[in-house]
Amino acid sequence: MTARDAADTQLAAQYEAYPYPARDARDEAKRLVIGSPSHLREIDHWIFGGRRPAGQALRVLMAGGGSGDGTIMLAQQMQSLGRPGRVTWLDRSAQAKRVAQARAAARGLENIRFEDGSLLDLPGSGLGPFDYIDCCGVLHHLPDPAAGLAALASVLAPGGGLGIMVYAPHGRTGVYMLQDALRLLAPPEDAPPDRVEIAKRLWKQVPETAWLRKNPWIDDHIKGGDAGLYDLLLNPRDRAYSVPQLAELVAGAGLRIECLVEPLRYDPDSYLADPKLRARARGLDPVARAALAEAICGNMGIHIAYLTRAAEPVPPRPWQDDATIPVLRELDGPTLARALRPDGVLPVTFDGLRVAVPLPRLAAALLARIDGRTGWGEILDGVVAAGASRDQALRDRDALVQAMERMNRLLIAASA
């Protein structure tokens, strides 16, 4: 068993008192919480490039599964699509386990296995190997995040990958100032309910000059209940990573970043129209370009990344293969096609920041035929039969892929 320091002991007590995020199993009848990482379509695309057969059992680990958002989402998606495999929930919080189990029971999910423990104890635990590992909102709370990521990599199957989320500094402006204040007013040694009461009192009293008052992208202390407030403002250990710091952490574990979600957000060309600025940005390496986008936007409060082993080759995604089946993540192709503006520009908003994404002339015709079951060959045949030239259809297909893959919306489905 991994030794705990004082902050780790306080963290364990926090998640027993306030399982995070706050969830009620009765809500499962109303909605499925959808997000990144660990959406099944994203795993198929960013980790496996659409080359892993849908009929091959998927072995998944949710490391630090908490109250179960990622676990329930992925297990439900696997069950709904008839995908074989199992999701292993791993956490040391008994209260979080009760919540996650109740949510699974409410949905009738039988493809989840619940394990008690810390991800730091994975090496030698007998668990794994896993084809996909989720670690969302955990590494930045560990005493040694590098050791945590190495522990995850130790149980990753060949050809597999990870989806992680860590805090980012600029979008969390104001958070750490109030954490400093609350360490003085509500020290970590106090009981969690007492600390929550003090934090609520302080939030009512902080002046308008407080930076968190001015930060519209952070609202867990307002909308997340006591669990959200505690996790944001009272957490005993909370580290944020810039893009270069995240890249260094990932490389240290022998891994590489396959995708930062959404890729468009991390491209400075999305925000810089000035050709001189673009030219200077073009001379930067990929990590530096992403760091530039992070720095000039200021609204990134988290980084979501898909990772694979650095030593393993990166197979190209078969976008130009006629047999490849494109799929729209949480979008309906015909509906999106009808909603496109006449000028062919798709407006996209990321945490208050609007980006105009130009789409090719045949975008609507292509999107209207994307249903998650039809391959590119048949889609292109339909577009050509409607009057387009084959060359134009191919060019516009490639342009549509370039635009919408970067939004994490047009992906490759798992192979048959």
CATH A-level architecture of the largest domain: 3-Layer(aba) Sandwich
- State the CATH topology of the largest domain: Rossmann fold
**What Rg do the Cα atoms give?**
22 Å
Whole-Å distance between the termini? 42 Å
**What would CATH call the class of the largest domain?**
Alpha Beta
Going across the major beta sheet, what is the strand order? 3-2-1-4-5-7-6
Largest sheet: 7 strands, mixed
Q: Strand-residue fraction? A: 15-25%
Question: Unreliable stretches, pLDDT < 50, 5 or more residues?
Answer: none
Mean pLDDT: 96
**Helix-strand sequence:** HHEHEHEEHEHHHHHEHHEEHEEHHHE
Number of domains: 3
- Tell me roughly what share of residues is in helical segments: 25-40%
Number of DSSP strand runs: 11
**CATH superfamily descriptor of the largest domain:** Vaccinia Virus protein VP39
Based on CA inertia axes, which overall geometry fits?
A: globular
Structural class: alpha/beta
In short:
By secondary structure, the protein is α/β, with parallel strands linked by helices. The protein is built from 16 helices and 11 strands.
